[in-house]
Amino acid sequence: MFLAGVVPGLMLAVAYVGAIWVMGRFTPKFVGGRPASDYEMLPWGVIASKTLPTLSLILVVLGGIYTGWLTPVEAGATGSLVALVIALMRKSMTLRTFWEALLETGHITASILFLITAASIYSRMLGLAGLPNELGDMLAGSNAGFFQIMLLYVILMLFLGTLLDTASIILIVVPLFLPLVEPMGLSLVWFGIITVVGAEIGLLTPPLGISCFVIKATLNDDRISLKDVFLGALPFAGVMLIVLILLIRYPALSLAILN
């Protein structure tokens, strides 16, 4: 899954850069800010102090996973430790903020554990109710092909993305569609990539676009409303949808490195 996500990740990065350039070139008012000529470039020392810690954190976490030195769980723990060290070196972490971070982490962890428990009960109930089999029989009876099934899958994920968080979407839709995908002989790694990208679009769509709420809280600027954040994120949700369609149409994009 990690290797298969490299090419889709690069595609998304290039698509984001292209979208930003197009908006900045043709709709500068939508992007906001001032003309580039009004800014002065920061000294290289300041740029390094702002970027190198983040790059080192990414290198430790992803490098540890891709080299096999760390499992994803170990990489997460190592990343937390490195982030703590960086915060201490920058003198931005106090005992009070450290305690608040621990409390917030506990709240998030408890919520995720309850979610996983409920999703496990939900998936078992789906199996007992025979809903996946009924759905499969219904689609088989309608002679639905590959693209019809994937269209239904994407539409369902986009709909749920307006109401639920990413983990909930994945835990709800995968048990429904996995029994339909497996008999087709499709790669489950490719299906996992499609699921992740489709569910991530929900992070940018109202009313429960978690990423938009995080951005609004991080900005802490009364001049920027939550509506502005959602409108600003909307083009990028469209970019993700275009990339998702390409990944569905050309599965080799996700499997190129694996093959």
SSE blueprint:
Layout: H1 6-26, H2 28-31, H3 44-66, H4 72-89, H5 95-129, H6 131-141, H7 146-161, H8 166-181, H9 188-201, H10 210-219, H11 226-249, H12 252-255
Helix pairs in contact: 1-11, 3-4, 5-8, 6-8, 7-8, 7-9, 8-9, 9-11, 10-11
Give me the strand/helix succession: HHHHHHHHHHHH
The oligomeric state is single chain
Mean pLDDT: 83
Number of helices, counting only DSSP H or I runs of 4 residues or more: 12
Helix % is over 70%
Query: In angstroms, what is the radius of gyration?
Result: 21 Å
Question: What are the defining features of this structure?
Answer:
single chain, 259 residues, mainly alpha, 12 helices, globular
What's this model, at a glance?
This protein is an all-alpha fold and 259 residues long. 76% of the residues lie in helices and 0% in strands.
Question: Your description of this structure?
Answer:
There is one protein chain. With 259 residues, the protein is an all-alpha fold. The protein has a domain at 1-28 and 130-259. The chain has twelve helices and no strands. It has helices spanning 6-26, 28-31, 44-66, 72-89, 95-129, 131-141, 146-161, 166-181, 188-201, 210-219, 226-249, 252-255. It is globular and about 65 Å long. The model has no long low-confidence stretch (mean pLDDT 83).
